[in-house]
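User: Continuing from earlier, I have the next pair ready.

Assistant: Great, send them over.

User: Here they are, in order.

Assistant: Folding the first of the pair now:
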Amino acid sequence: MDKNMIIAIVYMVALFAIFYFLFIRPQRKKEKQLDQLRSSLEVGQMVTTIGGMLATIAKVEDEFVVLEVGPNRTKMPFKKWAIASVEKKEN
């Protein structure tokens, strides 16, 4: 191997490492946190869906949650992956 080939290989490895630490690793960490959040959902929590809808959890199943929305407390089923965040309760 000549010097130019070694430099090219080191450059490509460094470029991959930069992409990994700037893009891939943070995305995996965020997905892991969302999976943990979705697996710990409980009845009575206020959640926000990926569509921006605020609702209260009425029932939790394996892959679905039933959400209550609006003043009439209309119940609608959603897949768990549609839950974006859990709202914090204010004291």
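And the other member of the pair:
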Amino acid sequence: MSPSGGIEYTTVRELRGPLAIVGGVSGIGWDEDVRITLASGEVRHGVVLDADRDLAVVQVLEGTSGMDPAGVRAAFSGSPLRVPVGTDWLGRVCNGRGEPLDGGPPVFGSRRAEVSGAPVNPVRREPPSDPVLTGVGAVDALTTLVRGQKLPVFSVAGLPHLELAAQIAAQATAAGEAFSVVFAGMGLTHADASFVRDALEERSASGELVLLLNTADEPVIERLLTPRIALTVAEYLAFTAGRHVLVVMTDMTTYAEALREVSAARGEVPARRAYPGYLYSDLASLYERCGRIRGRPGSVTVLPVLTMPAGDITHPVPDLTGYITEGQIVLSPETHARGVYPPLDALSSLSRLMRRGAGAGRTREDHLDVAAQLLAALARSRQVRDLADLVGRAALSPTDRRYLDFEEAFLRDFAHQRNDEPRDLDTALDRAWRALLTLPRGQLSMLPARLLDAHGAKDLDEPDGEAPR
């Protein structure tokens, strides 16, 4: 008998990678929590992945290294894996299983909740509204994040996506309302984990952050658990404690690769690029846990970060993520090569819910008009740049040359900021106006005349016109 009074099984038939195959079992269900005791007395934990007749496939969270099947005892709890939830998580730094890394005691909570969770019931889902301001000017102005939204960051290896994720986690706010951040790092190097801890130290000390760090040398199974624990903690902070919570999850490609590895160990038939056929539903089970619930305070907003192998946006992970989420923030190697941070590809980025959280009464009256004009002018400037590569700048019209000046002002004055610099939305929009005013007034057709008059827009190509300094 186990200490909890349940039956302990000793018939471990096989160890396969991170999996243990336990035979002779009965009454076992999926997702059950398992307590595994080794001959040495060491205790490990597992979750039931599959149960068929008298066999149970158990994923061992700490891995099967050093386990001898002959000396292993497995006790099934009869219920899914649960973690304590409560405000005690705030200010804590833990590993991917929720065990403390900060030298403090184990995290306790007012109750325990299943980490598997469930998507928000569509009938009770409240439409997202009001912004979450990230403190990154280009993101807030052009792809505004809305409370309850899921907005991924698409990047490639070598770009500063981790720096951007840490900066957003350190700076994000919800217009003075109670706000918390849950940061889930998956498959990080020790150097990256140390960087994240240092970057978020101030927010953690203020009791506004929960930090879960899974490093690359830890068991692959833990990587699957990390985002689920993060979301379980966030749901309590939002829907019970009444906070607006931002969940930053990086890197979801690493998560998907862990899922592929476990799927291969289970002997499942692979689908696209050897990922399991249920990759879409698995990602959706995470992303759809965000939102707002009618009649309850708070919100859960999700910002997943993922790298696109070889920059391929049709790769299964970004492709399926794009179907589930409401837009994307795309980082550009070309912009990064020009020394701009964050290297946002504004024309490929989109927040489909931006109009619900921006504009008069929410951000600023001119916000949506300025964002639309910026994107239109940027699209024209890229066409002009392609033309200049063919015919040379000297062959361009005066207006076309203004568009090249605009692109430079857009990148240097508007988009670029330091990775430790919080930039409020008013400052970002004022910088956007300065970039736009490098263009003739006649080219700013998406802005109302009263706004152009208020900002002193001129037709710069007239003889008495003068470019603003």
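Worth noting for the second one:
Confidence is low (pLDDT under 50) at residues 1-5, 462-469. The first strand starts at residue 8 and ends at 9.
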